[in-house]
Protein 1
Amino acid sequence: MRPKGLYDRAFNQFFSQKNSRAAYDSYEEQIRKEYETMLKKEQEKCYRKEQELKDKEIELNKEKQKQTKYEAIFKREQEKLRKKEHELKNKEVELNREEQIRTEHEAMFKKELNKKETISNQNYETKTPDLSKVIPIVLFLAGILLLLPKVTKLNLFLKIRI
């Protein structure tokens, strides 16, 4: 932990002075001062590092809080999406049921319509008269219509005479 050359300088200073006790005391004082300054510098470095670590820890805590907040928001949004997906699936199932019911009703309606058409076709075929019977009746009615103007003139003539 001691700086290199610290003892060398102090030792040289110790032997260069005439009074060895005073030189030794100054040697100890100089070493003590250098150790104190070195200790203060190391303490300041440690204090700065502790402060940096505390600041980083505070930042990490803030980041963790933000992360937990965002995770909670994410979970809520995910739950909302799950609910919406569930609702959409239910609506889809309901629409499929309605579509199935509608197709069943259409099929039933078509069957009924086909039945009615076949029945009406059968009724039409059974109710249509034979043309061999209809033609003489039509000719008879046409003859009456042709004679009708002459008959009305005759009626007028008869009414006038009477």
Note: The two ends are 164 Å apart (CA to CA).
Protein 2
Amino acid sequence: MKILITTDVYVITTNGVATSVKNLIDELLKNGHEIRVLTFSETHHSYKDGFVYYLRSMPFAVYPDLR
């Protein structure tokens, strides 16, 4: 099955959401699914790294660590 996972955080960030998404992806890959992840980059540039697509983003003034 082809699956697209969208998330505002991925392995760059260490928190419960990022860990849960990573664990989910690992299990789906083990079961033979084709995974793509769509998330925000830490820069003003979009790029692809393996099956992860990073979209350019800008800091959010109220919460500078969020994009």
Note: The chain has a mean pLDDT of 85.
Protein 3
Amino acid sequence: MFQIRQGSPQDFVRALDIHADFQCLRCGHCCKESDPIAITRRDAQRMASHLGLAPEQFESDYTTPMPNDDRGRSLKTLPCIFYDEQKGCKVYPARPMVCRMFPAIALFFSGLLDNNHCPGMKARAGISSGGRADLLGKEGLDELKRVVEAVQAQGIPVMLDRYDDGSVELKMAHYFV
């Protein structure tokens, strides 16, 4: 399990809150100009199945070791080899977790909301270009649970752990291999 280590829990909740309402317009910007697209073992299996390939063949043909991380892998090319200007994502039902988590993952790790190139973010009311998202009118465990449940309903493996001392930890399962 990968534990998010950057940003605060409040930043993570804000990012998840934005993600829960985000509507991808399939412009492809994030497919063409993002960081290397990380691929988990589950991503590789899901995408291989979608393409009718053995996971080993998919890994060999389409992935490479992640820069600065000998355990992880990423797609070999950027722009993403699976993005088609006319049809959009050719593997959308089987897309990688990092793609499923956009924009939450980008918002959380950068801490800033740069929506200059994302029409889906521009369409999100109350968010200004380059500004910090401040969408939670109230804080607290109830709000945190609501956001986590909404994101889980989209099939994104986020969980909330409570400890005996009353602290709360947010985790994403199976993000990196």
Note: Strands lie at 38-39, 63-66, 69-75, 83-84, 88-89, 158-162, 168-172.
Protein 4
Amino acid sequence: CLIVLGIFSLLQKEITISIVAAVLTIVGYSLNNTIVILDRLRENIKFKTREPFENLINISINQSLSRTINTALTTIIPILALYFFGGNILSDFALALFIGMVAGTYSSIFIASPLLLEWNKIFKIHQKGIRITGKKGKK
């Protein structure tokens, strides 16, 4: 979001309602991509309890990488069509979506997971051999 607004500021383009709609759409896509990766991590934590957390994050990213890239590419192709054939109003909207999709996909893969890893190093939420699924055992 901030990258889109920063680039629009550098290009001295006006922030219109359509740009605000594009930014909100970007937030949704970026959150969805991050949730998919973290959901895969949650599943891997359940079944690979003895694996170090760093490896679990790496495995989770690799398992969901093709899905994330395919989703981004299938969204970017129509966005490029909007940019080239949509006229002045739609071209700004499409430019904002394009920049945001690239930045959002990048941040979901390369920023969110390492941030979670650093958070885990500080707070020690997941340790080797400890399950954090939240399910209680039978009494």
Note: The longest helix spans residues 53-85.
